[in-house]
């Protein structure tokens, strides 16, 4: 069975600090996908990034970057120069080759203080 | 297309009452999913439909829960004889079958059982 672990329950930083959110996963699938979602207080899940298991290239999108390492089963998310608007719960998730069931971690609550 | 729509946004009910939630997916999406999210946890899979067929139900979905998707369009999730443990956010999502880009989530229905 798949499992996603986000060991950091809560992180608090001051605006403009860099912050990294950790994600470790377990899977028996040979083909799988990993995601990060943002959940602001309003409740909706906002898609941020998808990686497939064959693509270990790191990705940067503006202030966001992702580091995928199959050797350590990790898919970490870094926010550079954090802003108050980044405050939210962030979820890492796994989608297996069957492509229908997302398995989420418990989430990390990020608070960015001004 | 305005995305996935869920109604109501909030529902407060007395223990023992029945409640029904509605989800309207993105019109061209043939898959529809229900997830439940309790406080401090990530969303957990409940069930999913491909068109009008319900293809899998989680063990989390007790016999007090029933979901339907008549005609493969909108879906309803009914909880009978609600219990306080049913208090949670119920999230609906939709996707195209085989689309590994994950889902588009709705804003959820927050249920409080008093």
Question: Can you put this structure into words, describing what you see?
Answer:
The complex is a heterodimer of chains A (114) and B (114). Chain A is mainly beta and 114 residues long. Chain A contains no helices and twelve strands. In chain A, 0% of the residues lie in helices and 54% in strands. In chain A, the strands form three sheets. In chain A, strands 2, 5, 6, 10, 11 and 12 form a six-stranded mixed beta sheet that branches. In chain A, strands 3-9-8-7 form a four-stranded antiparallel beta sheet, with no helix packed on it. A two-stranded antiparallel sheet of chain A has the order 1-4. The N and C termini of chain A lie far apart (41 Å). The mean pLDDT of chain A is 93. Chain B has 114 residues and is mainly beta. The model of chain B has no long low-confidence stretch (mean pLDDT 93). The A-B interface holds A 4, 9, 33, 35, 37, 42-45, 47, 50, 52, 91, 93, 95, 99-107 and B 31, 33, 35, 40-45, 48, 55-56, 89, 91, 93, 97-108, 110.
SSE ordering of chain A: EEEEEEEEEEEE
User: Structural class per helix/strand content of chain A?
Assistant: mainly beta
Fraction in helix of chain A: under 10%
Q: Roughly how much helix do the residues of chain B carry, as a percent range?
A: under 10%
Give the integer mean of the pLDDT values of chain A: 93
How much strand of chain A? over 45%
By helix and strand content of chain B, what is the structural category?
mainly beta
Q: Report the count of strand segments of chain B.
A: 11
Terminal CA distance of chain B reads 36 Å
Summed up, the helix count of chain B is 0
Low-pLDDT parts of chain B are none
Strand content of chain B: over 45%
Shape, per Cα inertia axes of chain B: globular
Number of helices of chain A: 0
Largest sheet of chain A: 6 strands, mixed
């Amino acid at each position: 069975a798949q499992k996603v672990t986000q060991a950091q329950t809560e992180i608090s930083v001051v605006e403009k600090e860099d912050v990294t959110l950790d994600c470790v996963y377990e899977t028996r699938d040979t083909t799988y996908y990993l995601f990060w979602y943002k959940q602001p207080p309003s409740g909706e899940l906002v898609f941020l990034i998808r990686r497939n298991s064959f693509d270990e290239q790191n990705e940067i999108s503006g202030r966001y970057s992702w580091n995928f390492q199959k050797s350590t089963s990790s898919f970490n998310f870094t926010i550079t120069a954090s802003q108050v608007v980044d405050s939210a719960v962030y979820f890492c998730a796994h989608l297996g080759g069957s492509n229908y069931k997302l398995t989420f971690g418990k989430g990390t609550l990020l608070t960015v203080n001004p | 297309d305005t995305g996935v729509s869920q109604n109501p946004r909030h529902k407060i009910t007395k223990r023992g009452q029945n409640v029904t939630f509605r989800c309207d997916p993105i019109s061209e999406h043939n898959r529809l999913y229900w997830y439940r999210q309790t406080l401090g946890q990530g969303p957990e899979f409940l069930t999913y439909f491909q068109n009008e067929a319900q293809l899998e139900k989680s063990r989390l979905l007790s016999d007090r829960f029933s979901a339907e998707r008549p005609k493969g369009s909108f879906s309803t999730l009914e909880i009978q004889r609600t219990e306080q443990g049913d208090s949670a956010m119920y999230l609906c999502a939709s996707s195209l079958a085989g689309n590994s880009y994950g889902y588009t989530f709705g804003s959820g229905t927050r249920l409080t059982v008093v």
